[in-house]
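Predict fold of Alginate biosynthesis protein AlgZ/FimS; 359 aa.
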Amino acid sequence: MPLNAAKPLEQSPPAGFLPDFRRFEALFPLLLLTELAALVLSLSAEPTNFWIDLGGRSLFMQWIALGSAILLTLLHRPLARLPDHWSGPLAFLLVQAVALLTNWLVYLGLPAMGWFFVLVPADQIPTVLARNMTVSGIIAAVLLRHMTIHARWRSQIKAEAEARLDALQARMRPHFLFNSLNTIASLLRSRPDQAEELVLDLADLFRTSLRRDQRWTTLADETALARRYLNIEQQRLGDRLRVEWRLDALPEDALLPPLSLQPLVENAVYHGIEPLPQGGCLEIAGTRRGRRGALLCLTVSNPIGPDKQRRDGSHQALDNLRARWSACFPREGSLELEQSGGVFHASLAFPYLSRADDE
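Predicted 3D structure, encoded as tokens:
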């Protein structure tokens, strides 16, 4: 499989400001807020039988909430393609249409068929309908406005994460470039074939780091890129750098942001292996967690010496990677750093997504 062959997830339709109501974390807050609104309205009405009034009002409002969620989910893609100043009012009108249909069914449609009975005099039904539609409109406007603000906030966070990705892709540690060129120059006469191989590895590294049109890659391509980097460092450090790969437990088609593994490997070599006179073993391992192994974990481990043998750093690469990870995998993704027994562990956890899931 060639490098950078993964299909970018950005090719999928835009998400818009509406959440995916098929997810529990989006549907549950909607139902909870609807129930709270029903409770407030029942308390303010001071009915003769509070619990009966609350039950009927809750059932009525939950019908509107669930009907609106179903309709907005069915029309999610068309609404997402529209500008916010069109999709927002249109979503509001759709919610009001569901509320109007529910009111008609409860007060007129079902009672006329003998399936439902409402203790509301016929002359008061227009007033009750107007009141219910007003309440529905206020609640819908508030919720849709909240969704719009939340979506803009998420877009801002994503834009900042992508800007950090661009900054990370635009930089390559100067010492690595100079050391690589010196290593290649030393091999030109004695081992020209190996020098040519290192030039190709270095070219692939810079080609990937300078790309701007790719936001996702496969685990197979990411590990291939890390192997090219380690091949260059292996020629420079020799026996001081030993590498163990234990990734058989992970699927090669898993999607993750580009330049996710390579910065961790570079960090381990630069801050862990290289300062040690005797070098050390760099271990790259993969495990599966969660239900049915849906959560993948990628761990880079390296030995560390005493404080005087460690290099100080700004942790910019790790901060950038953590920001990108939280933007790409807001619910299940994490970057965990741990130091124990003279070994430093950097673990990336992310859900298993493949190109088939994207399509």
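The chain has eleven helices and seven strands.
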